[in-house]
Design a protein that fits this description.
The protein is α/β, with parallel strands linked by helices. The protein has 22 helices and 10 strands. The chain has a 6-stranded parallel sheet with strand order 1-10-7-4-2-3, with helices on both faces. It has a 4-stranded mixed sheet with strand order 8-5-6-9. Helix 9 packs across helix 10 and helix 16 packs across helix 18.
C-alpha cells in the first residue's frame, strides 16, 4: 500500500475506529473537540439535515411508504428467525452458480480468508469498493502489512484513505470535510493545483487517479447490500460505478458480506431497493444496482460470509432486531447528537444511533458511553426504513451499562441520586422550589456553573412562577376551570 504523505487536518479531532489501545471511548470529550469548531459544527449539522429533508420528500412521494416499511420489517424479522436455513440455502445456490463461498467467524478469519484468496491468485493490487464490513475487520491495514496494495475506489473512501482517517459516516465517508480540505488533500497526494476547491474539477482529478488503479487492479473486493437465498446471487448498490468497473475488469472478484444481509426471495428485493436509497440520500434509486449471480468466463468469484459477533447479537433478546439494519444511515442523518458531534467522536466503525446499538455488544466496557450519545428523542426510530426500535434499544443498553458499572462515577452517582429523589415526592417538590429560587437570585455565571456541562453554552430559562404539580393541583381544586389555557410558568 502506498504510504500517504501526512496531511494537515485543520485541527480536526479524529478517533481511529477500533484503535488497538482498547481504551474506553469518551464520546463526550471527543464531541467537545469537534464542537469547539463552531462553524464546522453548524455546517456539518446543516449538511446532514439537508439529506434528511431530501429523504422526507422522497418518502412523502410514495403513498405506500409505510406499507413498504412494514413489509421490509416483516421480511427481515422472518429471515433472521430462520437465518440458519437461509444461509445454507444461499450457499448451495451460490456454489451451484460457480461462486466459491467461504465462512468467517470473526474479523481475523475474514482477513485471513481474503489474504489467502489473493495469495493463491498471485494478486498484489486490490481495488476495493466501499465496504463498512471491511472497515469493521480492519482489512486495509491487515493487507498492507502483508505487502498488498489496497486502493479504495469510492471517492469519499479514497479521500479519507489518503488522509489516513477512518470514514466518519457509513454512506458519506468524507461528510466531515469541506471542499477546500479535499482540495488540499488532492494537492498533497495527487499533485493538483494548490487551492483547487471546485467540486467538478476535484471530481475529475479523482476520476483520472482512480481509473489508473481500476485498470491496474488484479483483484476487486466489493461489499454486498443484499444477497438472495432463492437465487444464490447478490446485489451491490453504488452511485459511482466503481464497484461495477472494478468487478468487471479484475480476474478475481471477492465479495465480503455480513450474514444479516440475506433476504429470502428475489421478489423481496424490490421492497428494499425502493427503501434503501430514498432513506440514505433522498434519491429515488441508486445510479447502479448491480446483480451478481456468478463469475464471468475466466474469472474467479468468491463470497465471504462473516459473522463477527452477529450471531451473538441475534441471540440477545431485546437487541436482535438491530440486525434488520440495511445500512442506509437515515438514523444517523436525523440524529441531533451525530449531526453536532461528528462521526469520529463515536470511536467505532458505525457511528450514530445504529452504531450505538450494535457496538456495545462487542465490548461493553469500551463502548459503554455510546448508548448515552443520544437524546432518546425517537427520531432515529421514526425514519428507520425497517422499523428498528432504536430508541428503546439505546435505553436498554444504558440500563445494562449502568448495571455493569461502566457508566462512570459521576453519571452513575447522578442517576442514582435522581432515582432516589424521584422516589420521594415531597423531597422532589422541595428540590424544585429550591431550584426555582436559585434561578431567580443567582447571577447568570453561577447559574451556568450550577447547571454543569449542559449550561455552559446555554442561557437557562427563567424560573416559572410555580411548579407543574402546584399549578395542576390548583386547577383541580377549581374544578378544572382555573388556569385553563395557561401553564405553570404563566
Amino acid at each position: 500500500m502506498p504510504v500517504a504523505t501526512p496531511t494537515r487536518r485543520a485541527a480536526l479531532p479524529v478517533v481511529d475506529a477500533h484503535a488497538p489501545n482498547g481504551a474506553p471511548v469518551d464520546h463526550a470529550a471527543a464531541a467537545a473537540r469537534f464542537t469547539a469548531d463552531e462553524p464546522r459544527t453548524d455546517w456539518h449539522d446543516g449538511a446532514l439535515w439537508f439529506v434528511r429533508e431530501k429523504r422526507d420528500r422522497q418518502a412523502a412521494s410514495l403513498p405506500e411508504w409505510e406499507q413498504l416499511r412494514e413489509l421490509a420489517s416483516q421480511i427481515k424479522e422472518h429471515t433472521l428467525s430462520h437465518l440458519d436455513e437461509y444461509l445454507i440455502r444461499f450457499e448451495e445456490r451460490a456454489t451451484a452458480n460457480g461462486i466459491r463461498v467461504h465462512w468467517a467467524r470473526d474479523a481475523t478469519e475474514h482477513n485471513r480468508v481474503v489474504h489467502g484468496i489473493l495469495t493463491a491468485a498471485g494478486s498484489r493490487r486490490l481495488v476495493k469498493s466501499k465496504s463498512m464490513l471491511t472497515e469493521e475487520c480492519r482489512l486495509n491495514s491487515y493487507l498492507a502489512e502483508r505487502d498488498i496494495d489496497v486502493i479504495d475506489s469510492d471517492l469519499g473512501e479514497r479521500i479519507v484513505q489518503l488522509r489516513g482517517e477512518p470514514p466518519s459516516h457509513i454512506v458519506l465517508p468524507a461528510i466531515h470535510l469541506k471542499k477546500e480540505e479535499v482540495g488540499e488533500t488532492f494537492h498533497t497526494h495527487l499533485g493538483t493545483e494548490r487551492g483547487l476547491a471546485d467540486p467538478q474539477a476535484l471530481t475529475a482529478a479523482a476520476r483520472a487517479h482512480l481509473r489508473e488503479h481500476l485498470l491496474a487492479g488484479d483483484a476487486a473486493l466489493t461489499g454486498v447490500n443484499f444477497a438472495v437465498a432463492e437465487t444464490g446471487g447478490f446485489v451491490v448498490c453504488t452511485n459511482e460505478g466503481n464497484a461495477d468497473l472494478a468487478a468487471a475488469l479484475a480476474p478475481v472478484h471477492i465479495a465480503s458480506m455480513g450474514i444479516e444481509k440475506l433476504i429470502p426471495r428475489a421478489e423481496d428485493l424490490g421492497v428494499f431497493t425502493r427503501l434503501l436509497t430514498r432513506s440514505a440520500t433522498g434519491q429515488p434509486v441508486t445510479v447502479y444496482t448491480s446483480h451478481f449471480h456468478g463469475p464471468r468466463r475466466g474469472q474467479e468469484m468468491h463470497l465471504v460470509l462473516v459473522d463477527n459477533g452477529r450471531s451473538v447479537q441475534l441471540g440477545r433478546e431485546g437487541f436482535w432486531r438491530s440486525l434488520k439494519c440495511i445500512r442506509c444511515a437515515a438514523c444517523i442523518n436525523t440524529c441531533p447528537v451525530y449531526r453536532r458531534s461528528g462521526g469520529h467522536s463515536y470511536g467505532s466503525t458505525i457511528p450514530g444511533p445504529i452504531g450505538s446499538v450494535l457496538t456495545p455488544g462487542m465490548d461493553l466496557k469500551r463502548y459503554g458511553a455510546l448508548p448515552f450519545a443520544s437524546t432518546l428523542c425517537g427520531s432515529c426510530a421514526a425514519v428507520c426504513p425497517v422499523k428498528i426500535d432504536l430508541d428503546a434499544q439505546l435505553y436498554r443498553w444504558r440500563q445494562l451499562v449502568a448495571d455493569a458499572g461502566h457508566a462512570g462515577v459521576s453519571k452513575a452517582a447522578a442517576m442514582k441520586t435522581t432515582g432516589w429523589l424521584l422516589a420521594r415526592p415531597r423531597l422532589f417538590r422541595a428540590a424544585g422550589a429550591f431550584g426555582r429560587l436559585a434561578l431567580r437570585v443567582l447571577p447568570a455565571r453561577a447559574r451556568r456553573l450550577a447547571a454543569g456541562p449542559w449550561g455552559r453554552a446555554r442561557d437557562l430559562p427563567p424560573a416559572p412562577a410555580q411548579s407543574f404539580h402546584a399549578w395542576y393541583a390548583a386547577r383541580e381544586r377549581a374544578g378544572g376551570a382555573a388556569g385553563r389555557g395557561e401553564g405553570p410558568g404563566a
